[in-house]
Amino acid sequence: MKTPLLAVILFISVTILNTGCKKTTTVTSAPSLTTNDVILDVTSTTAQSGGTISSIGSSALTENGVCYSTTNQTPTISDTKVTSPLIYTSYSFVTNLTGLTPSTTYYVRAYATSADGTGYGSVVKFTTSATLSGVSGAVTTFAGSATGGYSDGMGTAALFSNPTGIATDANGNIYVSDSFNNRIRKIAPDGTVTTVAGNGTAGYYDTDAANAEFYGPQGLAVDAQGNIFVADFGNNAIREITTAGVVKTVAGNGTAGYVNGAALTAAEFKGPAAVALDKNGNIFVADRDNNMIRKITSAGVVSTVAGTKTPGYVNGTVNTTTGTYASFRAPSGLVVDAQGNIFVADGGNSAIRQITSAGVVTTIAGGPGQTTLLGTPVALTMDAQSNFFITDETGRVVELTAAKVLYDLAGAANVAGFADGSGTSAQFNAPQGICVNPSGNIFVADFNNNRIRKVVVVSSN
């Protein structure tokens, strides 16, 4: 039987439509990026902002920078813009803003442009000061000298050996983890240095304060009654020095590991570097070598607040039931605010992270792509106005204000030395612990300089 002509024609037509006439559609996309969530060094007429590009899109970048406005709350490149050198080897950039107006609110966001469009980060708001032309810190030596050793005494006549942790009490006394001396020291407001606990032997022994043994103690916290809590790094334990002068173990069994449960019989830590207290008597621990934040309840039970043994950089909501955890990389500093939010110096990620009381982990400053912003933050503290003061181990002290403005107070990134002075003329050598006393003065454990330094925030007009 012959095939009808009409059927042949229809078959050929459908085949052509299905094969020979297909078109290829090209999908294009603009760059994707975020705006730095903090503004740097705001004065009356200048500031710094920038961003991090997560994807350049479907074609090469032609321009990147920031745009800003005083009236448009979602500024675009049609408003004022400042370009930065095009990104080739890094995906982060910082841009200088100049010629700003004093006492004025600005809206700023990062942008990146290619042939396929312009992408924008989120909007950040800041206000220039009225007459302030800069904020810096005046640095002096409060105690200790270049000669590492062990000696009690007045101020610079006292000797320390690589001090690490530091904390203050309500009376303005400063407590120091004198790490290489394996002792806990006290500096009175007048500068008199005494020994609180430890006999100098690197060991693990709970007894009266004078005969107790520590092993490379680091972070410290003091409760309202004057009891001192110690992150005993080398012993993988959390210790307490009571007001009665007795040293005891709060949690950990001396074994390096990761175990939750009963604080004294089961729990294990690995390189605990910092401790912080909340208003309910819970102790939080930066379990550095486990890359976790742990909690010791007042009932003596240890649990994981956030983090995984595998280092990383992940924000999100912590769910212990489903095993969903955010990740950190060598967290070494902690502070808890009155609402129960935990702030973490996540040194390996060059970031300050927040864990809300609801278990949500976010980044409030810095990140792996913004290493020049915070360097290696190893400790942080908070004043009564919710301003943060942070030690960057590369050589400086920075302030992150409650308004999310970041100032370099003293020292300089990647500069190691010793010098008292103001701003960048001061020098530190691997600064570690930091605290703020009731008068608002800042104290820093200057590790390799064997000194305790005092920083007073000053304004230049």
In short:
By secondary structure, the chain is mainly β. The chain has two helices and 37 strands.
On the 0-100 scale, what is the average pLDDT?
A: 91
Helical proportion? Answer: under 10%
Inertia-based shape = globular
Tell me what portion of residues adopts beta-strand conformation: 35-45%
The count of helical stretches stands at 2
Describe this structure as you would to a colleague.
This protein has 461 residues and is mainly beta. The protein is built from two helices and 37 strands. The protein has helices spanning 5-20, 371-374, and strands spanning 32-35, 39-40, 47-55, 61-69, 80-84, 92-97, 105-114, 117-120, 124-127, 134-144, 153-154, 163-168, 174-178, 183-187, 192-197, 217-222, 228-232, 237-241, 247-251, 261-262, 272-277, 283-287, 292-296, 301-307, 316-317, 331-336, 342-346, 351-355, 360-366, 377-382, 388-392, 396-400, 405-411, 421-422, 431-436, 442-446, 451-460. The strands form eight sheets. A five-stranded mixed beta sheet has the order 2-33-32-31-30, with no helix packed on it. A hairpin with a 4-residue loop joins strand 14 (183-187) and strand 15. It starts with a helix and ends with a strand.
